[in-house]
Amino acid sequence: MSHSGISPAAYDVSSGHGEAQVSMPKTHIVPAAHGFAFEVKKGELFRIVDLYGEQVVDFAAWVQGTNLTEKLSMDYTRYHLRGVTPAIGECLWTNKDEPILQLVDDTCHVHDMTFMSCFPEMYAKKGVENHKSCAGNMAEVMKPYGMNSYLDASSPFNIFQNTPNYSLKRLGSSKPGDQVTFKALKDCICAASCCPYDLDGFNGGLVTDIAVVTGL
Ligand SMILES: [Zn+2]
């Protein structure tokens, strides 16, 4: 990412310290199979990047100051989209029927908002104990914000997950470097889980790191 292309809008002259502050992008590498929570203010942009390709990212968001009660809702979003694929410029919605995020860029265009996160019992029923899961990752990274159980994890927006006709197949959708960029329409807490599902050839057969870029 170029550091030379800072737009004038990135300069914050309202700090009152007499010096302009430069908002620089911060890249957070989320290790394979792990989760990451981050806060964004209304109007800020952030980006989810698939660094190596074919890596699903389970994504969720909550409105700050609501004790995790107002949250990104795939049900409401499907209603507003009249479908399951947001176009650039369209919004994701909360369970209070409010737009929470706007999709401002997307180099992949293939995502899912129909399936739940992978969860501990899914792996246990397949004979794999103590496997990391997206629901578990969400609970772990959201614990400081008051989430007590993976059962409280939301239905995710499954970025880079390819589920044609609601089928789960070994289909990747993203290439290395593919990204989605959102604009926050409210002060949010966001969480992303680098999906640990490494069985049956999913996630390209190898779970890999992703990046979350904030401060855009
Ligand atoms: Zn998963």
The total beta strand count reads: 12
Average of pLDDT:
89
Strand order, sheet with most strands: 3-12-5-10-8-7
Overall helicity: 10-25%
Radius of gyration: 17 Å
Distance between the termini: 11 Å
List its salient traits.
216 residues; mainly beta; six-stranded antiparallel beta sheet; four-stranded antiparallel beta sheet; 3 helices; 28% strand; globular; disordered N terminus; binds zinc ion
Architecture blueprint of SSEs:
Layout: E1 11-12, E2 21-22, E3 26-30, E4 35-40, E5 45-50, E6 57-63, H1 74-81, E7 91-93, E8 99-106, H2 120-125, H3 134-142, E9 157-159, E10 179-184, E11 188-194, E12 210-214
Antiparallel strand pairs: 1-2, 3-12, 4-11, 5-10, 5-12, 6-9, 6-11, 7-8, 8-10
Zinc ion binds next to loops.
Structural features, described:
- The chain is mostly beta strands and about 220 residues long.
- The protein has one domain (about 25-215).
- Helix content is about 10%, strand content about 30%.
- It contains three helices and twelve strands, in the order E-E-E-E-E-E-H-E-E-H-H-E-E-E-E.
- The chain has helices at about 75-80, 120-125, 135-140; strands spanning about 10, 20, 25-30, 35-40, 45-50, 55-65, 90-95, 100-105, 155-160, 180-185, 190-195, 210-215.
- It has a six-stranded antiparallel beta sheet.
- Strand 7 and strand 8 form a beta hairpin.
- The protein starts with 10 loop residues before the first strand and ends with a strand.
- Zinc ion binds next to loops.
